[in-house]
Amino acid sequence: GRDWETCMTTNDNWGYVRDDNDWLTLDEVVFKLVDIVSKGGNYLLNVGPDAKGNIPEPAVKLLTSVGKWMDVNGEAIYGTQASPFTCRLPWGRCTRKVDGDNTILYLHLFDVPKNGEVLLPGLKNDVLEASLLIGGEKLRVVDSTHGPRILLPKLEARGVSTTMKVRIKGSPEVSELPVLPDSDGVLRLTPGDADVSGQLKLAQRAGIDRITSWEHPEDIVSWEFEAGQSGIYQLRFKGAASEAGQEILIKGVGNLTCKMPKTSNMRREFMMVDVGEVKLEKGKIYRIQLQPVADGWKSANLHSIEIAPVD
User: Fold this and answer.
1) Where does the chain show beta strands of DSSP type E?
2) Torsional sign, CA 239, 188, 108, 100
3) How far, in whole angstroms, is CA 126 from its chain's centroid?
4) The predicted structure's pLDDT at residue 157
5) CB 14 within 8 A of CB 46
6) What's this model's pTM, rounded to 2 decimal places?
7) Beta bridge partners of 196
8) Could you tell me the pLDDT band of residue 209, with boundaries at 50, 70 and 90?
9) pLDDT exceeds 80 at position 166
10) CA dihedral 6, 9, 12, 17 (to 10 degrees)
């Protein structure tokens, strides 16, 4: 509900540093651009000229490459608004644009779904047409319980991402859904989809989303999710603790206890821990809840939970 922007630089310094050669790649800049615009923000990207006022050659090459990407994908960036979807889109990001009485959704695919389908989770509107932005190839759309599914052709490499253009009737209407499995069947519970209580915060550092300020045992993290198939799943926990031995209780899929892994830098370094196996039923909605065991709790950060079908 307010204007905002993210200020970043093209390497590790805001001014010119001769030995700083840690330049962002085209993929990184485009991903950040699409991510920020999909959330309604502006991307302010800094370049530091040298003592003679010259822009460093690596920065020139980077920005030129971004310009070439924008030449063919700019329609999905300029003049767009934030995504109407509040949940995580496992395949990428979405931007939108008013088109008379209708709306155009631009789908930015960074990960092409393994099942060849792009789900628009919870979308209630009728899809009028769908196509690839480059080349304009028409795409087939089918209805499903959780929203329209766009069937993908066999895609060739299209650079940083594949962009799709979907025209829908009217203004977007999206219903809230539980977290659904990705196209590989894995349930990925991330900070952006979590419900948090107490003094917990959602933060990002070095491009990594995390739940932080987990210093009080009474603070709880939870998600609602729906299993895609019945069977046994392996539950994994990815996090970082300030001290070894801290434990967390996982409720809602059976009571499991997990020791938080200690890392050398709990803001950047996370470890995945196998917690145990759980049994889930297809189509059933679960609420999983994480709460620290008070005895010995200090502080920790949470990266994600994965619940993967056991072959």
Assistant:
1) 5-9, 42-46, 92-99, 102-109, 117-119, 127-132, 140-142, 149-151, 162-168, 187-189, 195-196, 201-205, 208-214, 221-226, 231-241, 247-251, 256-259, 271-280, 285-292, 300-309
2) negative
3) 25
4) 57
5) yes
6) 0.85
7) 221
8) confident
9) yes
10) -150
Which pair of structure tokens corresponds to residue 43?
């991307």
Q: How confident is the model at residue 13 (pLDDT cuts 50, 70, 90)?
A: very high
Euclidean distance between CA atoms 311 and 308, whole angstroms = 9
Token representation of residue 306: 């994965």
- Torsion angle of C-alpha atoms 132, 134, 137, 142, degrees rounded to 10: 0
Q: CA nearest 71: which of 152, 166, 159, 167?
A: 159
Residue 68: CA atoms inside 13 Å, Cβ hemisphere, count? Answer: 10
The tokens of 28 are what? Answer: 């990184």
Using DSSP, state whether 152 is helix, strand or coil.
Answer: coil
- Coil vs helix vs strand at 33: helix
Could you tell me if 33 and 41 are in contact, meaning their C-beta atoms sit under 8 angstroms apart?
Answer: no
- The answer to whether 76 and 30 have CB atoms below 8 angstroms apart is no
CA 103 to chain centroid, in Å, comes to 23
Rounded CA gap, 67 and 63, in Å?
Answer: 6
Exposed (0-12), middle (13-18) or buried (19+): which is 125, by Cβ within 10 Å? buried
Q: How far is CA 282 from the centre of its chain?
A: 24
